[in-house]
């Protein structure tokens, strides 16, 4: 029997599919339950949602208990324009790569399992701050280790996973232990410009603003791909949209330098926008 779900339920379901963190997933599931139909034909659906909420709450309780009882913190708050995680088996060079990308002070050792908690650094990509997190080594039965569930949650919340391995066996291990993780993947292959490759894989662009007669301002503004001049105006100044007259545009999305555009124009990476207000 069709459940005849309305747009509110479909929107909540879409948010659940997009959710990265357990907190976001729980909120979306609760919205799905509150907006789901209540007629008899939807009872099975509502029961399934309630069961998923119960399982997710149990998982979150276990993760909090692990963080509280252990002396090692594995939680990392997302900061910057995006979060990138370095993931691989032991002794693969994650700490060295973290240092190369961010200059973070980490212990680089030939001995296995040197990293016991997430290590964090900041990659400055042309003025945009990106958070890079080294995940402790992936091992057999990773999800059943003391910090495995919390670390897997950290990987899921990331915007990009840089996967590191040397052998077929190591790749098979990662495939098995990371099954179900849908974070976008970049396979590390000693790229000549890894930072640029990371940037291309992210759902982020950098846009510059400028004042009339001057060079563009620094640093750039980080935006989601698909953002418009309206989105930029709202982020830069609360009154820009209300007082907007037009914008001049330079860069990849402009047909010619200084093109006049309106609020709905979709921006591209490295665009330069000059706002003109009433």
Secondary-structure topology with pairs:
Elements: H1 7-18, H2 22-35, H3 43-69, E1 83-87, H4 94-102, E2 119-125, E3 128-134, H5 148-157, E4 160-163, H6 168-177, E5 185-187, H7 194-201, E6 204-210, E7 221-224, H8 229-236, E8 244-250, E9 259-261, E10 272-277
Helix pairs in contact: 1-2, 2-3
What proportion of the residues form beta strands (DSSP E)? 15-25%
Q: Radius of gyration from the CA trace?
A: 23 Å
How many individual helices?
A: 8
Query: How much helicity do the residues have?
Result: 25-40%
CATH class designation of the largest domain? Alpha Beta
Low-confidence stretches: none
How many separate domains? 3
**Would you give the CATH topology of the largest domain?**
Rossmann fold
CATH architecture of the largest domain: 3-Layer(aba) Sandwich
The major pleated sheet works out as: 5 strands, mixed
Cα distance, first to last residue?
Answer: 56 Å
Topology, number of strands? 10
Strand order, biggest sheet?
A: 2-3-1-4-5
Structural class: alpha/beta
Shape: flat
The CATH superfamily of the largest domain bears the name: P-loop containing nucleotide triphosphate hydrolases
């Amino acid at each position: 029997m069709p459940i005849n779900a309305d747009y509110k339920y479909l929107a909540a379901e879409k948010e659940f599919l997009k959710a990265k963190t357990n907190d976001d997933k729980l909120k979306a599931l609760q919205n799905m339950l509150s907006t789901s139909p209540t007629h008899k034909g939807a009872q099975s659906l509502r029961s399934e949602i309630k069961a998923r909420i119960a399982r997710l709450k149990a998982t979150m309780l276990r993760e909090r208990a692990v963080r509280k009882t252990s002396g090692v913190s594995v939680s990392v708050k997302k900061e910057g324009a995006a979060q990138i995680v370095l993931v691989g088996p032991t002794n693969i060079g994650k700490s060295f790569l973290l240092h190369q990308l961010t200059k973070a002070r980490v212990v680089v050792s030939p001995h296995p399992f040197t990293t016991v908690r997430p290590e964090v650094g900041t990659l400055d990509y042309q003025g945009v701050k990106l958070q890079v997190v080294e995940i402790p080594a992936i091992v057999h039965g990773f999800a059943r280790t003391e910090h495995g569930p919390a670390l897997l949650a950290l990987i899921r919340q990331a915007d990009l996973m840089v996967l590191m391995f040397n052998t077929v066996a190591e790749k098979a291990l990662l495939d098995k232990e990371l099954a179900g993780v849908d974070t976008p993947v970049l396979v590390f292959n000693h790229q000549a410009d890894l930072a640029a490759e990371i940037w291309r894989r992210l759902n982020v662009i950098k846009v510059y603003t400028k004042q009339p007669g001057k060079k563009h301002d620094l640093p750039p503004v980080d935006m989601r791909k698909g953002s418009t001049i309206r989105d930029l105006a709202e982020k830069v100044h609360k009154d820009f949209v209300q007082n907007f007259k037009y914008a001049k545009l330079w860069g990849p999305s402009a047909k010619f330098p200084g093109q006049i555009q309106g609020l709905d124009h979709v921006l591209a990476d490295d665009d330069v926008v000059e706002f003109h207000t009433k």
